[in-house]
Amino acid sequence: MKTIKEEMRVRWSETDSAGIAHFTSFFVYFEAAEQKLFREILKLDLSKQIGPHRIFGLPRVEAYCQYFSPARFDDLLEVELKIGSVGRTSITYEFSVQNKTTGKLAASGKVKVVAINEKFQPEEIPQEIAELLR
User: Fold this and answer.
1) CA–CA separation, 93 vs 115, rounded Å?
2) Beta bridge partner(s), residue 14
3) Domains in the chain, start-ordered, CATH in brackets?
4) Which is nearest to 107 in space by CA: 97, 121, 99?
């Protein structure tokens, strides 16, 4: 199972009026780790998705996050992404967000994406990509 870790700090714009990372910010953190996966493991430029790999997009069809402890402005977070499963047209990511400033688990979650073509129909994940993810 592939694992990616991405460190980031909680930015002011990601916090609520109490200075705590807004719940929606965690999905942004998840996506940052996903981008690192595509860049470093798959060596794919997501800005050029149409091409030899045939994937036009990866819309989210499921997203879940459970929160355990707050992350505050300027806390250092480590987002870990694991590949939960790779189906014919879908990928399920599993995430955990460790707050390195407090030493506590901040959140965990799952996101399922489906590969689509330019007609917004499900597209089989190319074999070479599926193998890299497994």
Assistant:
1) 14
2) none
3) 3-133 (3.10.129.10)
4) 97
Single pTM value for the model? 0.89
Using alpha carbons, select from 96, 74, 63 the residue that is nearest to residue 20.
74
The H or E element that residue 132 is part of is helix 127-133
Q: Name the pLDDT band for 15 (thresholds 50, 70, 90).
A: very high
Share of the chain above pLDDT 90, in %: 69
pLDDT digits (tens, 9 = 90+) for 18-76: 999 999 999 999 999 999 998 888 777 666 655 555 667 889 999 999 999 999 999 99
Give the per-residue SS3 of 14-58: HECCCCEECCCHHHHHHHHHHHHHHHHHCCCCHHHCCCCCCCCEC
- Beta-bridge partners for 21: 15
